[in-house]
Amino acid sequence: MAKFLGGELKQHLMSKEVPADWDAEVVKVLVGKNFHEVAMDEAKDVLIEFYAPWCGHCKQLVPVWDKLGKKYADHASIVIAKIDSTANELEEIKVQGFPTIKLIKSGTNEIVDFDGERTEAGFVKFLGSPPPSPAQAKVFVNALRGLQASVDGQAAVLHHPRPDRPLQVPQHQ
């Protein structure tokens, strides 16, 4: 009784076991036992769908959520995840209806409710700037390679304030 009154007891929370393949797909599968490790990673923004397997609206969201997962699959700091709220309980998040979408922000672990359109565009807008498409990323990488080759292939020439005294900067090896 003293531990209860002293606030030392923790509530028993329901959790499924962590699936062996929880991170094999583009949408990560969370359960109570891996929630803190994944969702509270301060280096990442984690957008989570709290769902119920029997919920019609949740079932309708699956293709949108999967597309979103694919869009952000290679993003270094954004994770798209889902958790079955009928089988997993969390101390810090209580879900009243399904689906519930929340963002756990990097750096602070602030929990932000999503209340926008449940479309790919609505979620992308909520997350901020979308990741580059593979084609855009390839163009960017190729441009950087070209710039690097240009810099490596030439010595930069800086000019002294007096034009009659040019200053040569040697090429880096």
Give the topology.
Layout (H helix, E strand, L loop, with lengths): L1 H4 L22 E3 L1 H8 L5 E7 L4 H16 L6 E7 L15 E5 L6 E3 L6 H8 L6 H20 L3 E3 L6 E3 L5
Parallel strand pairs: 1-3, 2-3
Antiparallel strand pairs: 2-4, 4-5, 6-7
Work out the helicity level: 25-40%
Radius of gyration equals 24 Å
The rough form would be described as: globular
Tell me how many strands there are.
Answer: 7
Beta-strand portion reads 15-25%
Q: Residue-averaged pLDDT, rounded?
A: 84
What structural class do you assign from the helix and strand content? Answer: alpha/beta
Poorly predicted residue ranges: 155-160
Looking at the structure, the CATH topology of the largest domain is: Glutaredoxin
- Per CATH, the superfamily of the largest domain is Glutaredoxin
Domains (count): 2
Element order, helices and strands? Answer: HEHEHEEEHHEE
Question: How is the largest sheet built, in terms of strand order?
Answer: 1-3-2-4-5
Largest sheet properties: 5 strands, mixed
CATH architecture of the largest domain: 3-Layer(aba) Sandwich
Q: Whole-Å distance between the termini?
A: 72 Å
In DSSP terms (H or I, runs of 4 or more residues), the helix count works out at 5
Question: Any idea of the CATH class of the largest domain?
Answer: Alpha Beta
Describe this structure as you would to a colleague:
With 173 residues, the protein is of the alpha/beta class. Helix content is 32%, strand content 18%. The protein folds into 2 domains: 2-127, Glutaredoxin (3-Layer(aba) Sandwich), CATH 3.40.30.10; 134-168. It has helices at 2-5, 32-39, 56-71, 120-127, 134-153; strands spanning 28-30, 45-51, 78-84, 100-104, 111-113, 157-159, 166-168. The strands form 2 sheets. A 5-stranded mixed sheet has the order 1-3-2-4-5. A two-stranded antiparallel sheet has the order 6-7. The longest helix has 20 residues, at 134-153. The protein is globular, with a radius of gyration of 24 Å. The chain starts with a helix and ends in a 5-residue tail after the last strand. The model is unreliable at 155-160 (pLDDT under 50).
